[in-house]
Amino acid sequence: QVQLVESGGGLVRPGDSLRLSCVASGFTFFVTPMSWVRQAPGKGLEMIASINAGAGGTKYEDAVKGRFSISRDKAKNMVFLEMNRLKVEDTAMYYCVRGLQTLGDRGQGTQVTVSS
To answer: CA separation (Å) from 108 to 1, 22, 93, 111?
Structure first.
């Protein structure tokens, strides 16, 4: 059974940094692309970052490009999202997703709130 468990969210101020983590189990992690999506209050799911299984190529949504960085540790079945220079508009529930589809299997999420 696919399980994804996110952690690392919190309440921070604009300009701060956070590192989100996701532990994956129940599937062959090292051959599976992974993504992070987020859902802001009153809005739909938004794909913000993805990482391939092989060479680890990454893609980012324009709003986070240059500020966020996705990475993975194949030995630990983990994927990370390093978030720098956070903005109020980054406030959302963040989900780790198996694959490259916004509506793929995801965990329970971790809340990130950016407020002054």
So the answer is: 15, 10, 9, 10
